[in-house]
Amino acid sequence: REDHGFHVRYRMEASCLELALEGERLCKIGDCQAGVSFFEAAVQVGTEDLKTLSAIYSQLGNAYFYLHDYTKALEYHHHDLTLARTIGDRLGEAKASGNLGNTLKVLGNFEEAIVCCQKHLEISRELYDKVGEARALYNLGNIYHSQGKNIGCIGPHDPGEFPEEVKAALQEASDYYEANLIIVTELGDRAAQGRAYGNLGNTHYLLGNFRKAVMFHEQRLLIAKEFGDRPAERRAYSNLGNAFVFLGEFEMAAEYYKRTLQLARQLKDRAVEAQSCYSLGNTYTLLQDYEKAIDYHLKHLKIAQELNDRVGEGRACWSLGNAYTALGNHDQAMHFAEKHLEISKEVGDRSGELTARLNLSDLQMVLGLSY
Amino acid sequence: LTKLQGATSEENLSQSVLMSLPGYRLPARRSSRLSQASNSRNSFYLGTCQDEPDLLEEWNRIAELQQRNKICPPH
């Protein structure tokens, strides 16, 4: 009887672990949806090995995070935290707290996210776990960065023109990224350095420190090239373009946006390609080269239509209307102002609709006078 | 002096009332924006900041655990 009991228990253990392993394998190859089913099945079967159970909770939370089901992610990371605390596993508690913090950040619950990631930091320091400490610092930077952006996106702002509370959050983010950078540099972790540089660059861009932003994005670019990480390279080009626009160095901005465009085409990312064309159109408008501006805005318009992006299409029409007006081509300007009005009404963009009406009445006056 | 203080606190009060109204901006900020007028770089900002993607744990925690358990089985 004793032997039989052991055998049954052994089979149960094996099948729970096997299911979990399969779940993990599926997530690794990018099929998190199927992975979740296996993890859920593993939980159904159950296990008495608490370390395994903790790993399953954690990966299930991560899989739901990838699938953007943050409520479920929260649920499993919370189970993981409870389990780790119950068995007195400090390292497990630290990891679970970090995961919980990241999920709370995405849900916009910044206060609780900070408490969780502080816990992650505290335990990592207590255990002299440098990797964990660096990770916690990076995650804390990300929370303050998101918080700053979240308050800052109410109403239109230029970088550097945010209210004090936004600046305070962004400054805090910058401090955490700097602290992270010191450790990952010590550890010689180049990939982590790249991430810190990228986010530091964007934080300084938002703070209005454009020179610093350029410096950090150049570092990010260097590491992206080292790793042959083309999406990261593409992000760096685009962020460099943005910073140079605000430095008033429009030729440099155009160069970087062109590289963004090139990579977007290679990576076959149509949305990024459209964004690059739009940025290039705007940059050539600032350079008062309206022919080139029109060329890029038309490219943007074409992709927006292909992707059925009505908001983007409206923006393209508005920009084209302005560029044709600058060139004195009032008929074309009229055509795009009308399209802008039509789309603004369709998508319920009140301010776009009013702008389009004003543009149309101005153009009608110009055309009326010229007849 | 008390009158002056009264005026200041009244100003403070009206300022805090104004600040809580939707769409109100401090006048100083507004005038600096108007100088940029048609050449505004505002259209660059929204959605253009490209952040690093969220970093999650690698998909090898359970596999690692299995490896360790093979070497030293759980008691």
Structural features, described:
The complex is a heterodimer of chains A (about 375) and B (about 80). With about 375 residues, chain A is mostly helical. Chain A is about 85% helix and about 0% strand. Chain A has 17 helices and no strands. In chain A, helix 7 runs antiparallel to helix 8 and helix 7 runs parallel beside helix 9. The longest helix of chain A has 27 residues. The radius of gyration of chain A is 26 Å and the shape is elongated. Chain B has about 80 residues and is mainly α. In chain B, about 55% of the residues lie in helices and about 0% in strands. About 15% of the residues of chain B have low confidence. At the A-B interface, helix 1, helix 3, helix 5, helix 7 and helix 9 of A face helix 2, helix 3 and helix 4 of B.
**Low-pLDDT residue spans of chain B:** 29-39
Could you tell me the radius of gyration of chain B in angstroms?
Answer: 29 Å
Helix percentage of chain B: 55-70%
Question: Biggest protein-protein interface?
Answer: A-B, 52 and 31 residues
Sheet of most strands of chain A: none
Our measurement of the CA-to-CA distance between the termini of chain B, rounded to an integer number of angstroms, reads: 82 Å
